């Protein structure tokens, strides 16, 4: 009996949640292609996957590069959009509002641009999974800017699920996850922050990239899920 092989593209698959998702999805029934801007970082990610995935370097923030990649790629089945950014953190009275625009350019625009570029070759019986963040669901001081950025993705998903049907469109909203996203902090600061959030979170720890990868894999595989926000935060939004 012939096994049908599906193909998932993970944009931003060179580290963190994107790389963990590629590792989770790789298997006998799933081909995976990881992408990223930095060729060296992408090569190291590819090596960590044992060379089992395909890889392609391009800048998701540049529509021409995204279009060129998907044209070369040809037909595929699932798109995971893990392009990320770190702008918009800080108390509102002193927040540089231009950071919101920069954050949109870093995260929202690349995710939407890649979906638009992928539509001509993306299998309509497949899926799209955006990655936002729980900050858009938290009433917590200091996250208004980054919440505005991530909230755009939460808002657009149900609209796209209806407009692009039968293509399934969902979004995962991770909580505080121990990934290289936090590398802007010194090690001591990062561990103190993680300990603080672990104490606030009902499950008693911060998340791992693999936790979010499990949630993404569920949305990719479940043909009856569309237009949904799947929050993977250990219950943080209730405690915070």
Overview of this structure, please?
By secondary structure, this protein is of the alpha/beta class. The protein has eight helices and nine strands. It is globular.
List the helices and strands and how they pair.
Blueprint: E1 6-11, H1 16-25, E2 30-36, H2 39-48, E3 54-57, H3 63-73, E4 76-81, H4 98-118, E5 122-131, H5 144-163, E6 168-174, E7 177-178, H6 187-200, E8 207-208, H7 209-221, E9 229-232, H8 236-239
Parallel strand pairs: 1-2, 1-4, 2-3, 4-5, 5-6, 6-9, 7-8
Which terms summarize this structure?
240 residues; alpha/beta; 7-stranded parallel β-sheet; two-stranded parallel sheet; globular
Give a quick precis of the structure.
With 240 residues, the protein is α/β, with parallel strands linked by helices.
Order of helices and strands: EHEHEHEHEHEEHEHEH
Instruction: Give the N-terminus to C-terminus distance in angstroms.
Output: 51 Å
Q: Quick check: average pLDDT?
A: 94
| Uncertain segments | none
Helix share of residues? Answer: 40-55%
Tally of strands: 9
Number of helices: 8
Major pleated sheet: 7 strands, parallel
| Shape field | globular
- Reading side by side through the largest sheet, how are the strands ordered? 3-2-1-4-5-6-9
Strand content: 15-25%
Question: Structural class per helix/strand content?
Answer: alpha/beta
CA radius of gyration is 17 Å
């Amino acid at each position: 009996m012939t096994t049908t092989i599906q193909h998932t593209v993970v944009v931003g698959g060179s580290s963190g949640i994107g790389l963990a998702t590629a590792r989770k999805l790789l298997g006998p029934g799933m081909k995976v292609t990881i992408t990223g801007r930095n060729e060296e970082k992408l090569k190291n990610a590819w090596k960590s996957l044992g060379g089992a995935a395909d890889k392609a370097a391009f800048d998701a923030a540049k529509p021409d590069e995204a279009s060129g990649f998907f044209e070369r790629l040809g037909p595929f089945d699932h798109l995971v959009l893990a392009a990320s950014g770190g702008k918009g953190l800080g108390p509102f009275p002193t927040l540089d509002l231009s950071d919101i625009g920069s954050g949109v350019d870093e995260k929202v625009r690349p995710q939407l641009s890649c979906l638009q570029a992928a539509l001509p070759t993306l299998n309509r019986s497949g899926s799209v999974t955006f990655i936002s963040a729980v900050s858009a669901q938290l009433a917590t001081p200091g996250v208004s800017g980054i919440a505005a950025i991530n909230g755009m993705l939460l808002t657009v998903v149900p609209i796209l699920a209806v407009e692009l049907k039968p293509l399934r469109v969902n979004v995962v909203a991770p909580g505080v996850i121990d990934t290289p996203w936090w590398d802007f902090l010194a090690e001591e600061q990062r561990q103190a922050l993680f300990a603080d959030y672990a104490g606030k979170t009902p499950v008693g720890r911060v998340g791992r990239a693999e936790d979010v990868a499990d949630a993404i894999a569920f949305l990719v595989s479940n043909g009856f899920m569309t237009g949904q926000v799947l929050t993977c935060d250990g219950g943080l939004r209730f405690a915070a």
